[in-house]
Design a protein that fits this description.
Blueprint (H helix, E strand, L loop, with lengths): L7 E2 L12 H9 L4 E8 L5 E3 L20 H4 L13 H8 L5 E6 L11 H11 L6 E5 L2 H10 L4 E5 L2 H7 L2 H10 L4 E5 L16 E4 L4 H7 L1
Parallel strand pairs: 1-2, 2-4, 4-5, 5-6, 6-7, 7-8
Antiparallel strand pairs: 2-3
Helix pairs in contact: 4-5
Length: 222
Amino acid sequence: MSAAPLIIGHRGTAGLAPENSLAGFALAAEIGADGIECDLHLSADGVPVVIHDAALGRTTDGKGPISQRTSAALARVRLRDGSTLPSLEDVAQLLAPTGLLLDLEIKTAARGRRYPGIEAAAAECLAGAGMLGRTIVSSFDWRCVAEFLALATPRAALGILNRRGVILAGGAGRALQRARKRGFAGICVPLDSIRRKRLKPADRAGIWIYGANDAAGIRAAL
């Protein structure tokens, strides 16, 4: 996708602004990131909303599961800085004129339950904003990624794994093979799950890294 590494702001600029906030996404553009990553849940009435957790309590002044709140109720919720909880449409409209990439992580509800229709709702929103060609769709639940690919053509699709998932797959290289068989461009894995000597040079472009949180981590990722 690029000759140089892409720098994607995790949850916006989570170390500098409230995570998954419009202010954090705007700041990512100001400081020169190539894109932002955000997390997607679905309201009770089928509106995609941008928040990490399946419940409101940790990052907002609200309580309870996202899946049990309508979009109108969620519009009254405030993040810790007093701003509103963004919808995917809010984020897409903010990013559209910036040129930034959108790394969209599709989340599941409580106990890993998939949101019915979240992929279709997201695809429709992004297509309407002209953002599909700049969107990297990803999820720990690879079925969500496959369903999105059946509906739309994003810039790339990634299956996410945690460290245990990489180990169970037999290493990042084997996990990447499984992802490519599903039509994904690659996988996204934590930095501490990568073993450079076990990777084929041709596979490295298909492996995206999260958890490079300081200068030493960035050097190791590179």
